[in-house]
């Protein structure tokens, strides 16, 4: 369509507001409540315009263009009304500095006078210089306010982590309320009261910690004033430099803009044009990067053991020491433990080093029981190559989404945003879990199943689904008849007893799955539980029946990439069980570990740990080699979608830390190899492209331009077949000795061996991994109080934790988190089953005793 704005003829495609069209064509219209992420609100009324043939002054943010429209945006009458509106807004906002005639001359004093408890003007405000209201006042040339000033005198809210809330500076634009509701689905903030008493707040004025807030920072980033202020930068000057990079604290790989002052990290914000996160982030990426980079636990110099003590030495001495010691062992006497939190370049070189230099076959596979690894086993068992790639955009366009046993908002918040977008477009959401989450309210069906009954739930749904479909279309799939006979063994009369749900509920679910092709999403909640393999086989079968798509989620930032590297060096890796067994039998005598290391019952003769942070386990090493963090290096990662992403160096390496690939190269050279003379990460990537077909498109030049580059997929569905489970999952047995069930959930708040939920004070308040959650009824019966130390005990171990009373939990069920790299004091109960070195993660029969 064609329209005219200020006499300028413009062509417009699609459904757009006048304000959107004006911005696209560099026509300025002031606005404070509008934002590209949000639906039109028309609250501030500053964006009013004149439209030929229409009465009044409609807001441009809420008026869509029509063919032939003639619009004026800057007439004298409009400007007069806008100034009056803005003066009314300023009458309830500290504005002395905004209209001060000497405001240009006080720059040299701003850095000191801003450090005050009460904001009375811009130079006292922590948002000075990064405030939308300042920009609009300057654009409209406001030099006086013709209304009496009113200071609302609200108490500044400082009780929550990471940011303060000063509603004396709030202009009621509603951006924070709307982003929390529309984009994040949390609804932690809302408007309270009406008229002149209206203010943004929480239900019953409770802290955000008690209001369902995820502390993603979206409200802080979208606030046009200093009403919401990040505490860490409250008294800092404006940044002098910004660098974009990929956050490596989860498998999504959000693009972040990291602000710097004199080369030091100030804070991080999501990149508005981010391919994955589209201007959104989670609490870790938004608020923990600075504390991670400058953690007091950073290893900044090489250390080797001398006279039973670790001592700082030069790099040459440390490398000579490690090389000499490793040369003393034969190939398979050395075990190598990789990490899925290092770059493709680091991972490739580590495998090459183990294969070509150490000549060991004892290279441990990465995250052996992760969702991705279990899915890979199912695919390999099935025959064809697997399609692991997906896109968040496809999730946001899905018609039916099924999530099983995963708190997706906590574990994968950016994926949740895509799911929420689909739900708001009309998609149906099915959630299956033993406990409820705040976001369960968005589900069409919530299946509150018995803990550990996932396999039976999926099998019963498959059984009911077969009653509704035309079998001819399924009979061509291999093993169909055997699978149908297998389902006949499940007694319908025992549905309630086995799964804890009514037969009608499961039939309703099966009917819903019949209506649309579903998207099944699962994470560690399914794969790491007892019977994870069988449950995944049942999910695979249900996916085949419904013609849906199965999406496994990675655990770490580069697990997808490390899988491809493992495939390339397929003759040179072992599973966790093999490493532990050979270590116990003294067949493995030396361990070279990069990143966090698992729990060893027997310490090897020689232990090398290459990591960024000191921990109890790391301090047991014979050589401790300081590795740079992802903020200090260049390299590539593959996120859970299969998207190849480029890390940019944000800061110079601290101390004497070096990239992982540099350390590996130097040790290889010290051991006599001439094939490790790499000078930079890009030269390693060129070799990877030539060696691994799936990564052949990973050109630095393309990645630097932020092109969409994915791992090459060679999936085939020609040989799909139904999986027949050999043994049914066993159930935890309750009794008088162990009357409760403990559910263990994977806690992803870590980077390498640094436990963020213990090191970052704010994050520890949100979801400390030491909590043992319990229902109010159980707590009352046992006379337990919130915050009391308790010990949860089973036949295979114990877990010391802090009581947290949770309304979401039913009676008889406890819940706790586990972290594979945690130190012994907080190791998860039954992380290693009794007498065996393998993961065994609940539900587990336990009892509660009071701690000291």
Explain what you see.
This protein is α/β, with parallel strands linked by helices. Among the domains are: 239-293, ADC-like domains (N-terminal domain of TfIIb, Single Sheet), CATH 2.20.25; 314-369 and 558-704, Rossmann fold; 391-541, 3-Layer(aba) Sandwich (Dimethylsulfoxide Reductase, domain 2), CATH 3.40.228; 740-850, Barwin-like endoglucanases (Beta Barrel). Helices cover 29% and strands 17% of the residues. It has 28 helices and 32 strands. The strands form nine sheets. It has a six-stranded mixed sheet, with helices on one face. The chain has a six-stranded mixed β-barrel with strand order 25-31-28-30-29-32. Helix 10 (344-358) packs parallel to helix 23 (660-670), helix 15 crosses helix 18 and helix 15 (454-466) runs parallel beside helix 20. 49% of the residues are buried.
Rg is 29 Å
Give the terminus-to-terminus CA distance.
74 Å
Quaternary structure state of the chains depicted? single chain
Stretches where pLDDT falls below 50 for ≥5 residues? 821-838
* Total number of beta strands: 32
Report the average pLDDT across residues: 89
Feature tags:
single chain; alpha/beta; six-stranded mixed β-sheet; globular; N-terminal domain of TfIIb
Summarize the structure.
With 852 residues, the chain is an alpha/beta fold.
Describe how the helices and strands are arranged.
Elements: E1 2-5, E2 8-11, H1 18-24, E3 50-51, E4 70-72, H2 76-90, H3 107-113, H4 132-140, E5 163-165, H5 175-183, E6 190-192, E7 199-201, H6 218-222, E8 228-230, E9 241-246, E10 255-261, E11 264-270, H7 283-287, H8 289-293, E12 303-306, E13 309-312, H9 315-327, E14 334-337, H10 344-358, H11 371-382, H12 392-396, E15 400-404, H13 408-411, H14 413-424, E16 428-433, E17 445-448, H15 454-466, H16 480-487, H17 495-499, H18 503-515, E18 519-522, H19 524-527, H20 532-546, E19 549-552, H21 559-568, H22 576-584, E20 590-594, E21 606-611, E22 623-626, E23 635-638, E24 644-647, H23 660-670, H24 681-691, H25 700-704, E25 740-746, E26 750-751, E27 754-755, H26 756-759, H27 761-767, E28 771-774, H28 776-782, E29 789-794, E30 797-805, E31 813-818, E32 844-850
Parallel strand pairs: 1-4, 14-20, 15-16, 15-18, 16-17, 18-19, 20-21, 21-22, 25-31, 28-30
Antiparallel strand pairs: 1-2, 3-4, 5-8, 6-7, 9-10, 10-11, 12-13, 12-22, 23-24, 25-32, 26-27, 28-31, 29-30, 29-32
């Amino acid at each position: 369509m064609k329209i005219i704005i200020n006499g300028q003829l413009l062509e417009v495609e699609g459904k757009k507001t006048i304000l959107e069209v004006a911005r696209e064509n560099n026509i300025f219209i002031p606005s404070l409540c509008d934002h590209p992420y949000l639906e039109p609100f028309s609250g501030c009324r500053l964006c009013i315009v004149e439209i030929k043939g229409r009465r009044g002054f409609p807001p441009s943010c809420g008026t869509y263009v029509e063919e032939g429209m003639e619009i004026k945006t800057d007439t004298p009458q409009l400007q007069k009304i806008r100034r009056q509106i803005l003066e009314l807004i300023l009458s309830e906002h500290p504005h002395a500095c905004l209209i001060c005639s000497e405001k240009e001359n006080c720059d040299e004093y701003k850095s000191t006078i801003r450090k005050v408890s009460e904001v009375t003007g811009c130079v006292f405000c922590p948002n000075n210089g990064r405030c939308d209201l300042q920009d609009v006042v300057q654009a409209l040339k406001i030099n006086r306010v013709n209304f009496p000033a009113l200071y609302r005198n609200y108490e500044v809210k400082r009780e929550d982590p990471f940011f303060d809330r000063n509603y004396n500076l709030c202009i009621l634009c509603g951006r924070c309320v709307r982003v929390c509701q529309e984009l994040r689905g949390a609804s932690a903030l809302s408007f309270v009261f009406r008229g002149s008493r209206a203010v943004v707040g929480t239900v019953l004025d409770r802290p955000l910690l008690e209001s369902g807030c995820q502390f993603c920072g979206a409200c802080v980033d979208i606030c046009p004033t200093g009403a919401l202020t990040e505490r860490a930068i409250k008294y800092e000057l404006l940044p002098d430099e910004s660098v974009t990079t990929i956050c490596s604290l989860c498998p999504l790989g959000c693009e972040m803009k990291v602000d710097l002052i004199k080369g030091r990290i100030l804070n991080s914000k999501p990149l508005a044009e981010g391919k994955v996160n589209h201007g959104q982030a989670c609490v870790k990426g938004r608020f923990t990067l600075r504390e991670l980079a400058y953690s007091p636990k950073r290893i900044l110099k090489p250390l080797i053991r001398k006279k039973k003590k670790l001592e700082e030495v030069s790099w040459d001495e440390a490398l000579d020491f490690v090389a000499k010691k490793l040369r003393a062992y034969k190939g398979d006497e050395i075990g190598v433990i990789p990490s899925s939190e290092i770059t493709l370049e680091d991972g490739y070189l580590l495998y090459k080093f183990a294969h070509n230099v150490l000549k060991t076959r004892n290279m441990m596979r990465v995250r052996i029981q992760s969702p991705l690894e279990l899915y890979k086993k199912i695919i390999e068992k099935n025959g064809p190559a697997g399609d692991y790639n997906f896109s968040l955009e496809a999730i946001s366009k899905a018609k039916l989404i099924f999530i099983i046993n995963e708190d997706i908002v906590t574990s994968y918040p950016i994926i949740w945003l895509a799911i929420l977008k689909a739900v708001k477009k009309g998609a149906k959401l099915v959630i299956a879990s033993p406990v409820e989450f705040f976001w369960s309210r968005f589900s069409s069906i919530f299946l509150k199943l018995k803990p550990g009954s996932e396999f039976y739930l999926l099998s019963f749904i498959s059984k009911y689904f077969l009653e509704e479909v035309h079998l001819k279309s399924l009979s061509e799939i291999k093993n169909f008849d055997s699978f149908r006979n297998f389902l006949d063994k499940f007694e319908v009369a025992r549905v309630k007893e086995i799964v804890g749900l009514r037969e009608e509920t499961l039939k309703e679910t099966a009917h819903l799955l019949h209506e649309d092709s579903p998207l099944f999403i699962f994470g560690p909640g399914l794969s790491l539980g007892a019977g994870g393999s069988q449950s995944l086989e049942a999910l695979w079968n249900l996916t085949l029946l419904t013609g849906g798509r199965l999406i496994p989620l990675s655990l770490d930032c580069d697990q997808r990439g490390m899988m491809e590297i493992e495939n390339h060096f397929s003759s040179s890796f072992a599973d966790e069980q093999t490493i532990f067994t050979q270590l116990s039998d003294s067949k493995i005598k030396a361990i070279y570990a990069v990143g966090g290391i698992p729990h060893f019952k027997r310490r090897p003769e020689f232990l090398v740990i290459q990591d960024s942070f000191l921990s109890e386990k790391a301090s047991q090493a014979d050589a401790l080699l300081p590795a740079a963090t992802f903020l200090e290096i260049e390299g590539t990662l593959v996120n859970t979608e299969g998207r190849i992403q480029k890390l940019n160096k944000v800061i110079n390496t601290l101390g004497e830390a070096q990239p992982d690939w540099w350390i590996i190269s130097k040790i290889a050279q010290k051991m006599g190899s001439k094939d490790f003379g790499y000078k930079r990460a890009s030269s390693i990537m060129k070799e990877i492209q030539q060696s691994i077909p799936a990564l052949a498109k990973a050109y630095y030049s393309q990645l630097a331009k932020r092109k969409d580059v994915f791992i090459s997929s060679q999936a085939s569905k020609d040989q799909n077949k139904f999986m027949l489970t050999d043994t049914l999952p066993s159930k935890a047995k309750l009794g008088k000795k162990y009357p409760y069930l403990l559910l263990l959930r994977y806690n992803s708040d870590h980077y390498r061996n640094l436990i963020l939920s213990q090191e970052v004070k704010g994050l520890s308040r949100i979801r400390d991994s030491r909590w043992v959650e319990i229902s109010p009824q159980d707590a009352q019966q046992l006379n337990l109080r919130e915050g009391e130390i308790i010990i949860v005990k089973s036949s295979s171990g114990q877990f010391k934790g802090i009581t947290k009373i949770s309304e979401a939990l039913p009676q008889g069920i406890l819940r706790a988190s586990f972290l594979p790299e945690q130190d012994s004091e907080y190791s998860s109960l039954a992380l290693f089953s009794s007498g065996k070195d393998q993961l065994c993660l609940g539900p587990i029969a336990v009892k509660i005793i009071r701690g000291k």
